[in-house]
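2.7 Reproducibility. Because tokenized structures are sensitive to small changes in the input, we list the exact sequence used for Putative ATPase (AAA+ superfamily), including any N-terminal residues retained from the expression construct. No trimming or masking was applied before prediction.
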Amino acid sequence: MQRKIIKYLIDWKKNPYRKPLILQGARQVGKTYSLLEFGREQYENVAYFNFETSPTLNRTFEENIDPNYLIPILSRLSGQTIIKEKTLIILDEIQLCERALTSLKYFCENAPEYHIVVAGSLLGVAVNRENFSFPVGKVDMKTLYPMDIEEFLLACGETELVDQINNSFLNNIPLPSALHETALSYYRQYLVVGGMPDCVKKFIETKDYILVRHTQDMILASYLNDMSKYNNSNEIKKTRLVYDNITVQLSKKNTRFQYKLIKTGARAAEFENAIEWLVLSGIVTLIHRVEHPKKPLENYRDIDSFKTYVSDVGLLGAKKDIIAEDVLFLSDELNDFKGGMVENFVCCQLIANGYKSYYWTSERGAEVDFIIQREGKIIPLEVKSADNTKAKSLTVYINTHNPEYAIKLSTKNFGFEDGKKTVPLYAAFCI
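Resulting structure tokens (single pass, no recycling of outputs):
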């Protein structure tokens, strides 16, 4: 399966100012697979180490973190001759060895000729930065997310369709109706399968949604285990309550996060640490309201008003126990949830493309789902789950703030009219 991260990794390798790289991301998003694939394609050999499966590795880094000491030992442990510039060193599950993270500073300063990449989940919550030195300024950092819908289409062998979608997006030309319907079918499949690589792989090999759901359930179980393993004992129950409640929040017409929906009388002070844990772990994203859509957007963020989305739309469906057929055939029984599910889908695509997103509301209740800065311009995005593109809130925003253009995402084909760029949901990756 093709991952866009490979291009970033190749650029990192070629960069003369390259530093040791930390590849972070939620569990099961494909960090290890991507790094091993990159190593096989771009290096003469790969020296791979996993702190979860090799206890002796921890002891090695506890004894000494000088590269001159480590390299001969790592060569012996891996059975690989580690050669400068020609061997990729991969340290996996780095969150389990804080001293190994510290060692990256010395690889940067004293041994930059060695190419070293580390991968880890839960780096934001599992690492105690009070007790050790994080290599600030001495590392490159990159976050890997689940496969977006473009990567899903490529995995399904639809390279030509991806090219045609990109062309239609750039030129605002509708796709031929047959291709449009085909792409919509893939989009609905993606809503069910999501972008976790193991789920995508099983779907492509078997087309069995029950097997895909089983895989999703296993991933969700691992997330719950992490909440117990890497969390303060007082916060475990609260963290699980918040995570379980996100699907409830997304089922509401107003998807803004409401503490009262977690439990009666709930307050921000009681659950803010739980929300922060979920965000730092990479399995939940917050989108804050922006009071005034001006540059820089972050300056106008309302810290008390936000929406919550999960990291993968397939896992969202699994958490809600939605059967595949209801999504594939757009069952009316999902009407209350469709809007939130599709918003979650778009949010994941924007994050994968590196956007920091916000949403906007007017004093009279108009709401635009996403506000982003694209190519130096502040652009509003309105999301509709079907082909009804009467976006009253978007019109209010346009009349109030006069953006250069706006984007409407729906099941409608490509087009551009009255300053509004119509983009089918399956083309969200183009934004």
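The two ends are 22 Å apart (CA to CA).
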